[in-house]
Amino acid sequence: MGMLPGMSPAPIPLGPGTSGTSRGDACPGALRLHAADDGFLARVRVPGGVLTAVRARALADAAGRLGDGVLHLTSRGNVQLRGLRDGCGGELAEVLGEAGLLPSPLHERVRNVVASPLSGLDGAGFVDVRPWLTGLDSALCASSVTPGLSGRFLFALDDGRGDVSSLGPDVLLRGLPDGGSAQLVVADAEFVVRYEDAARAAVIAAESFLAAASEVTGRRVWRVAELGAPLAELISRDLMAAGLRMSTPGGSAPAPAPQSPPDFVRGDPEGLDEVTRRSWGARSATSGARGTARPATTHASPGDEPTTTNGAAPLIATAPFGSFTPDQWAALTDLAWRLPQRELRMTPWRTVVVPGAGPADRPALAAAGLITDPTSPEARLGACIGTPGCAKSRTDVRRDAEPRHPTLPTYWSGCERRCGHPAGPYLDVTALPDGTYRTTEERAEPRV
């Protein structure tokens, strides 16, 4: 196999259980495979969830040739390939590298970036985050420091509608109403930077965090919330050293956009119980592309039909449990291939946006077993992989899973780890050692 783009001259082990970095966290990647009960597992990072049709087909080819054929979406808009055969690491790396899905082996596990999936499509939001997305990924892969980030570290690019800012990111960029600036938020540190400097500022902030984390003794610090020390002064110094113009929020600076309600809620949170409504707050803000006031939309839920700037409505679909069979994935990629954008956008809610597609394309997707109706109970149902895929699971939760709340998502977990659970309010159903389930209402940061 030839050297992949961005690969260092020193060989990097590609087999199961190996890593392209020296960090000790256990997050799997495309080069570090995880041994599960149903075979090996690879997690392919796709910043912002954006896939060209060509790359989407390459993923399906890898899943079918090397694994169980199913593409499993994660709560960060990435893809997991399961059931991979032993010793396939080199072949998988070659397939991903040729498709452009592995731009830097040294950085592949730290390319954790979520972005407002409807940005630039529906006329909502203060900015279009796509330039941030490409700029951030390039700067992240160009940095000699960022390979030290944990595979859990998360960047979020929010266009101002408040959807991905609610996912507990370590570094947040949020579009502001003037359309020409961004709010950079890292724990206690908040700055306003120019739109064109935002991606670079986010990477500098991550490098500042690593510098601070290296000073902590006696424990490993994977994420900003674990640091326990202020970052504002350090980030400010590093941004100034890089020559970036910035200011601190205050005075007449715009207030942060409100957090979005759960993804099944569109518009105001009618139908939520009073406690949940108070905790999330009513969405009364407006937003617009590059400073033009427009009504904000919420998460990219199946069946959402916000009006786009060209008059079309983005089509949003999902599969049961966010696991797409080969036929279901082919239906999406074939549709995307026929459209001008030739693109799919995977979301942190395990849905897929098909830019340029509309309601007329739904019957073909429904025929493949995909869900495009937000009122469908399956659109609010999630579960971990359960048995037989996971040795830690106590039961086959996907066999037992059913919706158990009229409005909140229901998430079924095979053990207390609750892998992949959603952010925000949800009904948690967890398997217990005695074969029963415990049901509670939760509000939490998602786990991949």
In short:
Keywords: 4Fe-4S, Heme, Iron, Iron-sulfur, Metal-binding, Oxidoreductase. The chain has 448 residues and is α+β, with helices and mostly antiparallel strands.
What does it look like?
It is a single chain. The chain has nine helices and 21 strands. Among the domains are: 125-296, no CATH class; 378-444, no CATH class. 21% of the residues lie in helices and 20% in strands. Residues 1-23, 251-298 and 307-311 have low confidence and may be disordered. With 448 residues, it is of the alpha+beta class. The strands form five sheets. Strands 6-7-8-9-10-11 form a six-stranded mixed sheet, covered by helices on one side. Strands 1-2-5-4-15 form a five-stranded antiparallel sheet. The protein is globular and about 55 Å long. The two termini are 31 Å apart. It has helices at residues 53-66, 89-98, 130-142, 198-213, 232-241, 274-280, 326-337, 362-367, 397-400, and strands spanning 34-36, 39-44, 50-52, 71-73, 79-84, 113-115, 155-158, 171-175, 181-186, 189-194, 246-247, 286-287, 294-295, 315-318, 323-324, 343-346, 351-354, 381-383, 410-413, 424-431, 437-444. Strand 6, helix 3 (130-142) and strand 7 (155-158) form a beta-alpha-beta unit. The longest helix has 16 residues, at 198-213.
